[in-house]
Design brief:
about 240 residues, mainly beta, single chain, five-stranded antiparallel beta sheet, OB fold (Dihydrolipoamide Acetyltransferase, E2P), 3 domains, Structural Genomics Hypothetical 15.5 Kd Protein In mrcA-pckA Intergenic Region, Chain A
């Protein structure tokens, strides 16, 4: 379907529902689902406020002024989502999109030395030709590794990934005590240490408890992303 009604667009998009017309920008098919992503044009116009109209936002994107994960994206419908790295070329600003309790996803300014690094969660893995292991990440990215290396990574682990070298810089295993973030559901944006993991035969029924200070929150396993062993490996706040 090429169009998207404002009234049925994701509730967390910062756009008016009853003014500005019936339709809004529908994200292209890409690394993130419709429910968990936002098109570049809306990000430029309504989040960063670098444009007043969709026409202006489309012009900025079409000129190649926006990079996503180190690559220039000229499609104003290109979907961006959690942990994507967005760079504004003319100003040199670099943002990481992180889960947020108020706005679901918010851009956090990061230093230039982190522009090449991205946090990825392992969604699954399988064997490919040659007996190698292929990892599948939350943004649709895949990485093929030798068997002895690939078997070290488990589903729900996270990695610090180098966008330019296309290699893993750091492995963050999912286990008790690790600092994690909730990136979906009612507790989205909550960051704390994992204090409890309840595994079940069904992935959607497995739950996790996170603690930050005296506050403890529970969510399903599918909504949790490890950030670091004792502190986040990259800037997320």
């Amino acid at each position: 379907m090429p169009h998207l009604r404002r009234a049925t667009s994701p509730a967390w998009w910062p756009i008016p529902r009853k003014i500005g017309g019936v339709w809004t920008v529908r994200p292209s098919t890409g690394p993130h689902s419709l429910r968990r992503s936002m098109p570049l044009a809306i990000f430029v116009r309504d989040v960063l406020r670098y444009a007043k109209t969709l026409k202006e936002a489309r012009y900025i994107v079409a000129r190649g002024y926006i990079k996503v994960d180190g690559r220039v994206r000229k499609d104003y419908k290109y979907p961006i989502g959690v942990m994507d790295v967005v760079e504004i070329v003319p100003t040199g600003e670099v943002f990481r999109l992180v889960p947020d309790q108020a706005s679901y996803i918010k851009p956090v300014p990061i230093p230039s030395d982190e522009a090449d690094l991205k946090l990825l969660r392992v969604e699954g893995k399988n064997y490919v030709s040659g007996g190698r292991v292929q990892l599948h990440f939350h943004d649709g990215r895949n990485l093929i590794l030798p068997t002895d290396v690939g078997l070290k990574y488990k589903t729900f682990d996270s990695v610090v990934y180098s966008l330019s070298a296309k290699s893993i810089r750091q492995h963050i295993p999912f286990r008790l005590g690790v600092v994690s973030a909730v990136f979906d559901g009612g507790n989205v944006g909550f960051i704390g240490n994992v204090v409890e993991i309840n595994w079940t035969l069904k992935r959607r029924l497995s739950t996790v408890a996170l603690k930050n200070g005296d506050e403890v929150r529970r969510t399903i396993l599918d909504y949790v992303m490890p950030l670091g062993e004792t502190s986040p490996a990259l800037k997320v706040q």
